[in-house]
Fold this protein.
Amino acid sequence: MIIDCHGHYTTAPAALQAYRQSQIDGLKDPSHVAHPADLSVISDDQIRESVEGAQLKFQRERGTDLTIFSPRASAMGPHVGNETTSLNWSRACNDMIHRVCTLYPENFVGVCQLPQSPGVAPENSAAELERCVNELGFIGCNLNPDPSGGHWTSPPLTDRHWYKFYEKMVELDVPAMVHVSGSCHPAFHTTGAYYLNADTTAFMQFLLSDLFKDFPTLRVIIPHGGGAVPFHWGRFRGLAQDMKRPPLEELLLNNVFFDTCVYHLPGIELLLKVIPADNVLFGSEMVGAVRGIDPRTGHHYDDTKRYLDALPLSEADRHKIFHGNALKVYPRLAGRVAG
Amino acid sequence: MIIDCHGHYTTAPAALQAYRQSQIDGLKDPSHVAHPADLSVISDDQIRESVEGAQLKFQRERGTDLTIFSPRASAMGPHVGNETTSLNWSRACNDMIHRVCTLYPENFVGVCQLPQSPGVAPENSAAELERCVNELGFIGCNLNPDPSGGHWTSPPLTDRHWYKFYEKMVELDVPAMVHVSGSCHPAFHTTGAYYLNADTTAFMQFLLSDLFKDFPTLRVIIPHGGGAVPFHWGRFRGLAQDMKRPPLEELLLNNVFFDTCVYHLPGIELLLKVIPADNVLFGSEMVGAVRGIDPRTGHHYDDTKRYLDALPLSEADRHKIFHGNALKVYPRLAGRVAG
């Protein structure tokens, strides 16, 4: 069974975005009262339609089985409104993921959006995480290191600011994918700069800290192949060494994992050359940042399975990347999937 | 002749930093008057000593010849004080580079720091660029896309905000290396995140714009191997395609160049696999961000020539990367170096 650790519900029915728009419009109205979404307006058939021609079609065509599925990352927008805005929106998005997972339990398993809000304590997201894991059967979360949308107003991920939330993750035994949302900063294009920068930034924060001494079982996935990290693996090894930090393997690699959302063969080849197979999880971000077909290959840029298939990996490594590592990083998958 | 396009004067005599400290201390004093540096306190012997055991030693050991040399990037600190602070500091740093280049005309050629300051028009740096090029024989500049030191308060590099400065670059026929300074933002480690993020950010800004239609002869070098760009070349190709932009070769590659400051063989191998040899300039950033010896190879991480030497490049490509491209990108080198 091939598990794709990185999929977002980018094709949700328009009514979900209409609710979001009503939230945003409401914020301009002084008499605005935040109200939860009524998702009963969205039928199961609309949900089926939203994935049948997209994620499910690609799963079938590409030969993948189960997608670890979360709300659309660029639309999380935690900087919009306040904590209540974020909570209502996150619940709506997570409930939609739950409906997809309920309709297609063989194809999707949920990871939740967190109701983060700039300046609000991360542990305020613990209740929604708990709801998603305990009531909806989700297996992880997307943790946004920068709820401000590009201004990076939160302390580094290694600051004690985040510790109470990490305690909840450890208690529930769920990992987080470190994933920013859409950029509202004019310098940073969302999918072409901000996402990759956030990945690199988070990794370097981890490198500088003893976070994983404090939380030896905390697990994080850095998406988009780790941003710039594998390409600059020598730089990071050298920086750690110059700063008298332990070797990266010892410092980080029990806790930090990378997906394979790198959209060309030479990139995936490099990733697997420098990062141990134990730390790489198959992911495609499908349907996501890049939707076109590469004229050089005749296949979708984000069909990352093809790149992996083209590499001379051992059967053991292949099994880890496509399956085993996901079970290790997301232990709650075990109930859903044969080992 | 092997030309290293990326070296900073990280080993300057202590008196230079003492002047900088006096500037910073002065800013706290309400009666502070900005005063230029008196660099006559630094002797030629002190300058010789500062490079003999460092940059010159490494040139000899590694078999490189000429370093395109600029002030220490992390110390540019354009966010400190105001425009006058930056002008005095930049002139002092550039004058020191000039002294190094005058003492060792075979080994160093100058690239200048610009007296940028947050909120100040980039064209205010044109006079210092002109002085360095016309009076001191410099061949380029380091252009900082974020003089705020991590807050990215300037418009994107493709905004008309920068155009008058680009006009001066074009008039003088000098390129810019896009290089931020030290981070004063707690999220971003200077050499482990901020530098790489800036490289990726700048590239994506170029991808989105028609800057090089407006300035067909403008040339920029993106350092540190282009940040995350080559590793994600498929992503960038796909993003451009989805946005109906021209292919990257046509859109950017007459104007955008990458150095080889990537500190391990697999990274350099990837760089040369995806970026045409016409767009890659040998660089080491020596003595710079990573100073240690890689225990896996027994050589300095930043000895990037060794990685290139290990690749099966054609003689023609090797000549371009080590020599020819530098002459193309920095035409003012021609007076200094045989073609």
In short: Residues 83-103 of chain A form the longest helix (21 residues). The two ends of chain A are 9 Å apart (CA to CA).
